[in-house]
Design brief:
The structure is a single chain. The strands form three sheets. Strands 1, 2, 3, 4, 5, 6 and 7 form a seven-stranded mixed sheet that branches. A six-stranded mixed sheet has the order 8-15-14-13-9-12. The chain has a two-stranded antiparallel ribbon with strand order 10-11. It contains eleven helices and 15 strands. With about 350 residues, it is an alpha/beta fold. The chain is globular, with a radius of gyration of 20 Å.
Length: about 350
């Protein structure tokens, strides 16, 4: 039986935190605090950013120069990245990763920008034993990986549909990987990788398959991660978040990215445009100002340093992250989290809860 993506809802609930940001050893679950000295170790490194090819290196450099102060940084193309070049405690990593797990009737897709360190002493002690075996080498790398945190990414439906077709009839195991335990970024050109997996790896790194992977949103994400690591603060997922700043929406406009005009249909793995009636129902209890905005215009407002607020809604498997972000500072002024079969699409209750918080 062809697996349906919606079945994930009944079996898997993974968590990534603080408006899709976590600072934790566990990047797919509950808050797991690492030792405080790990922050200091991270801050003593140069961070290697391995990101998507959908933007040019010069664009990433401009963005990071404006946001990333916690460590020196270097941007390395996914096509050039090799772990062997960075097996030193001088380096940390910000690595675009994606992996999907295949079950008998389900699959789970996780995509993120993962921040981590490597225990290079342990790796180098065992390196000679695995250097001629790529699979053992990758397992050694991942066994000695110390997670700092992650930014959760929102895969678009076209990508989910391709993943769904890749798996076939299940059988278990982890298949579609990019920058993870089985495949690393240098596997894009590995002849031993299957055609379907190689195609998915290329999608992750060379196509714009994420709704929240825009230059503007990345700027705000990096601002927040930079701030948390600088302050040596951890982030949890499920706790709601409110600041007094949310009350500014009594007068300010809430900008809503255009991708929120659709509803995801899991049984068909497709999007359905919201009708005028649907949109009216969505905002019936939200009496404050709001305006839909394109990705391009949202990026422009963030790049220009405008002080404004926008909705950052992210769906990850059966999870829903509903957040309001200050586009100038990257700070989250409101956050709600929910998970389950009927909750992961944005709905009127989300805006009703927000409106009540604004009106307090």
């Amino acid at each position: 039986m062809k697996k349906s993506f919606y079945l994930v809802i009944a079996f898997f609930v993974f968590a990534i935190t603080n408006a899709q940001i976590t600072i934790s050893s566990d990047i797919l679950g509950k808050l797991d605090k690492f030792k405080p000295e790990t922050f200091k170790k991270f801050k003593s490194t140069t961070t290697i950013f391995v990101l998507s090819n959908v933007f040019q290196k010069v664009q990433y450099e401009k963005l990071l120069k404006e946001t990333w102060t916690v460590t020196p940084f270097k941007i390395v193309s996914v096509d050039e990245f090799k772990y062997n070049d960075y097996l030193s405690d001088k380096y940390s990593f910000a690595h675009l990763r994606a992996f999907a797990q295949d079950g008998s009737n389900i699959f789970v897709l996780n995509s993120m920008i993962n921040f981590y360190l490597l225990d290079t002493k342990e790796i180098n002690e065992k390196l000679d034993k695995v250097k001629d075996d790529p699979r053992k080498f990758r397992k050694l790398i991942m066994a000695n990986k110390m997670n700092i945190g992650a930014i959760q990414l929102f895969a678009n439906t076209e990508f989910l549909k391709k993943v769904d077709k890749t798996f076939g009839n299940g059988g278990g195991g982890i298949k579609l990987m990019a920058g993870s335990a089985e495949f690393t970024t240098d596997d894009i050109n590995n002849p031993k990788i299957s055609k379907s997996d190689k195609g998915m790896i290329n999608e992750v790194y060379n196509s714009n398959v994420y709704k929240n992977y825009t230059l503007g949103m990345l700027k705000n994400y990096f601002q927040k991660v930079n701030s948390l690591i600088s302050k040596e603060e951890f982030c949890d997922l499920r706790e709601p978040e409110r600041t007094s700043e949310v009350k500014n929406l009594k007068k300010e406009t809430l900008y809503i990215p255009d991708y929120n005009k659709i509803t995801y249909k899991p049984g068909k793995v497709e999007d359905e445009p919201k009708s005028d009636k649907d949109l009216k129902e969505l905002f019936k209890d939200y009496k404050f100002k709001y305006e839909f905005i394109s990705d391009k215009d949202l990026d422009t407002k963030i790049a220009n340093g405008e002080n404004f607020y926008y909705l950052r809604y992210v769906k990850a498997n059966s999870q829903k992250f509903f957040s309001v972000v200050n586009g100038k500072t990257g700070e989250v002024v409101y956050k709600e989290y929910d998970a389950g079969m009927s909750t992961y699409n944005i709905d009127g209750d989300d805006f009703k809860k927000l409106a009540k918080e604004i009106a307090k």
